[in-house]
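Q: For a teaching handout, I want to show students what a protein-ligand complex looks like in C-alpha cell form. Below are the inputs, and the small molecule is S-adenosylmethionine. Please produce the holo structure.
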Amino acid sequence: MTVSVRVMRHDPLPEGDEKFREVERMFDRVAPDYDRMNRLISLGLDRGWRRHTVGELGLGTGARVLDLACGTGDLCDELASFEHVPVGIDYSAGMLASAHTRAPLVRGDAAQLPFRDHAFDGVICGFALRNFVELTRVFGEIARVLRPGGRFVALDAAVPTNPLLRAGNAIWFRGAVPLLGRLLARDGDAYSYLPRSTAYLPPAAVLADALEEAGFVETRHHTLTGGSVLVVSGTRA
Ligand SMILES: C[S@@+](CC[C@H](N)C(=O)[O-])C[C@H]1O[C@@H](n2cnc3c(N)ncnc32)[C@H](O)[C@@H]1O
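A: Here is the structure, written as C-alpha cells, with S-adenosylmethionine included.
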C-alpha cells in the first residue's frame, strides 16, 4: 500500500517505450473491471458521450469505421447501432479478451496500423489519445487508412476551465476515483494514473493543428458536460 501511495502521488508520468509498456500492462490488469468502473467513473454519462461522438462522424449506413484503441468495444457497439460497420483495434490482449462486442477485433499498435491505405470511411477513438506515445505518428496512420473525405472523431477526458467545475472535477477524479479503483478494482495505481494522464493531452487547438498537419481539413473541437470531456474532429483532405 505504501508503494501505491508513493507511485500515485510523486512518480512522474512515464514517456517513450516505458509509457508504451506500462500503459499496455495497466490495461491488461484493469480489463476485467473496465466496463463497470467506466460506468461508475463517468456517473453513467459515457454512453451519451459515445453516442454524441459517433453522431459527429456524420457517416451513413454501411460506413466502415475503425474504432482505434477500442478497449472492450463500447464504441464498436455504438457504431453498430448507427448501422455502421465497425472494426476494432487495440494493443492490450487483456482488453480484447474482456471485449463484449460482436465487431471483428484486431490486436495491434495505433502507430502502425495493419490496414491498407484508404480502407475506412471513418476512424473513431475514445479516451485513448493521451495514452499514445507519439500522437503525430498515430494521426499520420489515421490519415493514411482514411479515404479522402473520410472522418475522424476523438473523445477524451478534459479538465473544465470554470474554477468551480474544475474543483469538483479534481475532487472526483483525483480523490474519489483512485479510492474507488482501490476498493472496487483492487488497483489504486491504475485509477490514479488515468486522471493524471490527462496531463499528456495537448490543448484542443494544438490537437486540431496537429490533425491539419497530418492532412485533415475542417478540424473542430468542443467540450461536453461542463468541459469535462473533449470532442475533436476532422475530415481527411
Ligand atoms: C481508456 S481505454 C479506452 C477504451 C475504449 N476506446 C473506450 O472508449 O472505452 C484506452 C485504450 O487504449 C489502448 N491503447 C493505448 N495505447 C495503444 C496503442 N499504442 N495502440 C493500440 N491501443 C492502445 C489501451 O489498451 C486501452 O484499451
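A: Two things your students might notice: Residues 81 and 175 are 35 Å apart (CA to CA). The pocket of S-adenosylmethionine is lined by residues 23, 27, 38, 69-71, 74-75, 90-92, 95, 109-111, 126-128, 131-132 (CB under 6 Å).
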